[in-house]
Amino acid sequence: GAVVSQHPSWVICKSGTSVKIECRSLDFQATTMFWYRQFPKQSLMLMATSNEGSKATYEQGVEKDKFLINHASLTLSTLTVTSAHPEDSSFYICSPQTGRDYNEQFFGPGTRLTVL
Amino acid sequence: GQNIDQPTEMTATEGAIVQINCTYQTSGFNGLFWYQQHAGEAPTFLSYNVLDGLEEKGRFSSFLSRSKGYSYLLLKELQMKDSASYLCAVSDSNYQLIWGAGTKLIIKP
Known about the structure:
The complex is a heterodimer.
Chain A: E1 4-7, E2 10-13, E3 19-25, E4 32-38, E5 45-51, E6 57-58, E7 67-70, E8 76-81, E9 90-97, E10 111-115
Parallel strand pairs in A: 2-10
Antiparallel strand pairs in A: 1-3, 3-8, 4-5, 4-9, 5-6, 7-8, 9-10
Chain B: E1 3-5, E2 9-13, E3 18-25, E4 32-37, E5 44-49, E6 53-57, E7 60-65, E8 70-75, E9 84-91, E10 97-99, E11 103-108
Parallel strand pairs in B: 2-11
Antiparallel strand pairs in B: 1-3, 3-8, 4-5, 4-9, 6-7, 7-8, 9-10, 9-11
């Protein structure tokens, strides 16, 4: 299967600061990147979908000015949580897709964000 | 609207067999996925069904009936390490994954 990395794996920050999460597809090119978040004991919730070189499409209820997504290359996407607040504390997971072979979707290991 | 239903929690005994059901109503269908997720970790892929029938992969099998909007994941010879959440997800007409809430499986010795 594909290798996906996320950095950092966990982060603790103060309220009001910004946090950047990187997602890299190490052995394939990701034309599409999905960003999910997962609150405790809940399922994955899609935040946004981005295609390389294009602006991300955000799901309803997700603030695009707060969650900045950059998908500048086929192997790297970043999610920046700006002015983070305690309610943003969650598990953030990236999921790159090649655009082909829809029979499997790959996930990064996730980033645990805790905002104090 | 789009909806995926699966039981919240199930309990089974080590060495036994358990079946986790999933029913769905989505706009279009491009396949159904099962994922395993251990606490604090990202989901890992278990199976993919796009045609009706049973797909067997070792101790895990997955079944699909498109006409009934129904799938199940069958786990045989349960091991303690199988204690996890099992997520059912359907790929809709836009190839977007619609997720169920997950079934927490508890394995008892």
